[in-house]
Design a protein that fits this description.
The complex is a heterodimer of chains A (90) and B (103). By secondary structure, chain A is an all-alpha fold. Chain A is built from four helices and no strands. The termini of chain A are far apart. The mean pLDDT of chain A is 88. Chain B has 103 residues and is mainly alpha-helical. Helices cover 81% and strands 0% of the residues of chain B. Chain B has three helices and no strands. Chain B has helices at residues 3-28, 32-57, 64-94. Chain B is elongated, with a radius of gyration of 17 Å. Classes of the chains: A mainly alpha (90), B mainly alpha (103).
Chain lengths: 90, 103
């Protein structure tokens, strides 16, 4: 369990990179990639919290739901940001 | 302790290391497409390795929780590269030019 707690602390320090890219990204696509990376790291963090709280059977469902929401949100925003003139996105 | 403990913790440490490398790439690389590369591949590998390690630590992949963790790893392995690719495609179609040293 202590290994899971140590991994969670290192992952939270790791979140500095995506959050910096989310705040300072020159384009809006950089910000969206930062949001996606934060969501991806959060999936690992939720699973690790399930290991620390010894309720993995509950936390793994939250992790699956979070991964699906992250994926669909990223797809929708990418379709919204696609502003090509010829051949508009479907 | 036993074999599953060491294998699970090694996989977990590998996943955290991959996520750390992806975060460094997201901080340091020069333009959007290279940063999309850093967000697409190392983060996916980090999630897959970490979740597989947790599945081994939680008593193997043949329990219900282990199968759900395996499902999480499989879903992220498919979904995360797709979402980063769709973002890069939107950037390319919008007209964002790739970085080059002469530009």
């Amino acid at each position: 369990m202590n290994g899971a707690l140590l991994a969670a602390v290192v992952l939270m320090l790791t979140l500095v990179g995506p959050v910096y890219r989310m705040v300072r990204g020159p384009t809006v696509f950089d910000r969206m990639v930062g949001v996606g990376a934060v969501g991806t790291t959060t999936v690992i963090l939720v699973c690790l919290l399930g290991r620390v709280a010894e309720r993995m059977d509950m936390f793994v469902d939250i992790a699956i739901a979070y991964a699906m929401l992250n994926f669909s949100g990223s797809l929708v925003v990418a379709k919204y940001l696609d502003t090509s003139r010829e051949d508009p996105p479907r | 302790m036993n074999l599953a403990y060491w294998i699970g913790n090694a996989l977990l440490a590998g996943g955290v290391a991959f996520t750390l490398i992806g975060s460094l790439g997201l901080l340091r690389l020069p333009d959007f497409y290279t940063r999309a590369h850093a967000a697409g591949k190392p983060d996916t590998m980090g999630v897959v390795l970490s979740v597989l390690g947790l599945a081994v630590l939680e008593g193997g992949v043949l329990t219900v929780t282990g199968l759900k963790l395996l499902l999480t790893a499989a879903f992220v392995a498919v979904a995360n590269p797709v979402s980063v690719h769709v973002l890069s495609r939107a950037a390319m179609r919008t007209g964002l030019r790739p970085w080059s040293r002469r530009a």
